[in-house]
Amino acid sequence: MGFVDELEAAAAKVNQTGLSSVVGIGSRWPSGSGFLLADGLVVTSAHNIHGESAQVHFADGSRREATSINADRAGDLAVIQVSTEGASPAAFAGSDPALGTPIFAVANPGGRGMRLSFGVVSGKDRDFRGPGGHPITGGFEHTAPLPHGSSGGPVLNFAGEVLGINTKRLGEGLYAALRTDEALRHRLEALGKGEAVVRAYLGVGLLPGEVARRLRAAVGLPERNGVLVQHIDPDGPAAQAGILKGDLLTKALRAELSRASNLHRVLATAKPGDSIRLELLRGVEERTVEAILASEPEKPHREPRGSGRGHHRPH
């Protein structure tokens, strides 16, 4: 079977089995998409949810009101409890997509009709900013074109299984997606049970590695890879471990910190109460400290404003 024949067969399979799980979110702009996680549960992007209510539009044309919503704003995920009678949950793929993997992106923007587009995985391990500028790491990008209102919809493989969740447009024909790996599926399961997502917190605001290198060069210090501490929570774990503003963090749990996202990845696999070993430079003096991670403080939700460029928000 040639590729075109394989593509046509896969599209037919997705049309037959994959589209029934895809839903629209909202009744007016801004709106989004989502898909069935399990009986009575729909997953979407948190930025599609405004207030305490949501309308869910199903593939059969029916529209139902959510009974409850549990959102992880920092991770841009939300799970909606709603009657899903007559619709089948999506199936997750058993492996991560490789670079060049052909995929389908599916959406139902605000319930205004299904969209199915074809593309390939064009980038892996991509980091990007979520709502409010919160860093999201380990996603992937693809080339399937999507209209506005597609965030929250699934990225499917040729078997109609979910590989990722469309999250944001990157420009130049690219779209970012959250990888639906085991860790993300555990988060979705917790949200579906009404549990809060608790993140590990170090309590530092960082400048990117390239800025740190320029600043060190400007004051005559030797060049080193690392991220510069620009802000420190005086009551946070970093301050208690002795980290100071101006320190250059070079390693966390032996992982190189050439970018702020490297530290975020380390924290994403940790939990409050864990001890984390950090290596740093204070001027030319090398130091090692141990920090006991805390729970990330709750912040009032605000809609994203601007591009979020500049220093990295506290980790």
Describe the 3D structure.
- By secondary structure, the protein is α+β, with helices and mostly antiparallel strands.
- It has two domains: 1-197, Beta Barrel (Thrombin, subunit H), CATH 2.40.10; 200-295, Roll (Pdz3 Domain), CATH 2.30.42.
- Helix content is 16%, strand content 37%.
- It has helices spanning 3-18, 182-192, 209-218, 237-240, 260-268; strands at 22-25, 32-38, 41-44, 55-57, 63-65, 68-72, 77-81, 102-107, 115-129, 135-142, 154-156, 162-171, 174-179, 200-201, 204-207, 227-232, 248-252, 255-256, 275-282, 285-292, 294-295.
- The chain has a seven-stranded antiparallel sheet, covered by helices on one side. A six-stranded antiparallel beta barrel has the order 8-9-10-13-12-11. Strands 15, 16, 17, 18, 19 and 20 form a six-stranded antiparallel sheet that branches.
- The model is unreliable at 301-312 (pLDDT under 50).
State the separation between the terminal residues, measured CA to CA: 50 Å
Number of strands: 21
The overall pLDDT average reads: 86
H-E string: HEEEEEEEEEEEEEHEEHEHEEHEEE
Gross morphology is elongated
* Strands in their spatial order, largest beta sheet: 5-4-1-2-3-7-6
CATH class of the largest domain: Mainly Beta
The domain count comes to 2
Count of helix runs: 5
Helix content: 10-25%
What is the CATH architecture term of the largest domain?
A: Beta Barrel
Tell me the radius of gyration: 21 Å
